[in-house]
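Exercise 7b. Backbone tokens:
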């Protein structure tokens, strides 16, 4: 509980499954984004471009920013974020993909 004198921290866990319907469009958007990244060195930019061309999951990771999820939420400030993406086999009918049940009752 919070007594009002301490900050409240909330951990938001989000799991998404996306279908890549146009790999070229996805890769192109990620490459455009990398070209516009002013904080990257030329070496980092080269590595990022190579990774994005090799794997769609890397392209997604370059385009999704957790900050964007909470940027416009009033009364919150992002303290820390991490994310990853990976290619996966997906069967929406499999129990493995029942996202409504995390299997961890303590978090509910």
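Sequence design result:
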């Amino acid at each position: 509980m919070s007594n009002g004198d301490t900050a409240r921290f909330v951990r938001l866990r989000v799991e998404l499954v996306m279908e890549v319907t146009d790999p070229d469009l996805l890769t192109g958007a990620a490459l455009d984004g990398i070209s516009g990244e002013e904080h990257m060195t030329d070496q980092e930019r080269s590595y990022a471009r190579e990774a994005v061309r090799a794997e769609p999951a890397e392209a997604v990771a370059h385009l999704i920013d957790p900050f964007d999820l909470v940027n416009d939420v009033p009364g919150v400030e992002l303290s820390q974020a991490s994310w990853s993406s990976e290619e996966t086999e997906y069967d929406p009918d499999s129990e493995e993909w029942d996202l409504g049940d995390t299997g961890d009752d303590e978090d509910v």
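Instructor comment: Residues 23-35 form the longest helix (13 residues). The chain has a mean pLDDT of 85.
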